[in-house]
Design a protein that fits this description.
The chain has about 80 residues and is mainly α. It contains four helices and no strands.
Length: about 80
């Protein structure tokens, strides 16, 4: 496969995964009825930034979830 084809496939994967993640997070924002208008705008801004930077932010989000919940992978990230 040529480098150009791999570049386009990587870009397509980035866009599709980013869209799917932002769609999921947007649904969570819609479910929160306690947000006022200012908080909603800040949350949507955070959603846009997170979507653009999801390859960096997703692993940190996963690590946070592992630390908060009793997850089998927790032992891998805990310092002894």
């Amino acid at each position: 496969m040529s480098t150009t084809t791999l570049s386009w496939l990587g870009f397509a994967w980035y866009v599709i995964a980013g869209f799917m993640l932002s769609k999921t997070w947007y649904i969570y924002f819609q479910g929160d009825k306690d947000l006022n208008k200012h908080d909603l705008i800040i949350s949507l801004l955070a959603l846009v930034v997170t979507t653009l930077l999801w390859p960096i932010t997703l692993p940190f989000t996963y690590l946070e979830l592992v630390r908060k919940h009793n997850h089998p992978a927790r032992d891998l990230f805990e310092k002894t």
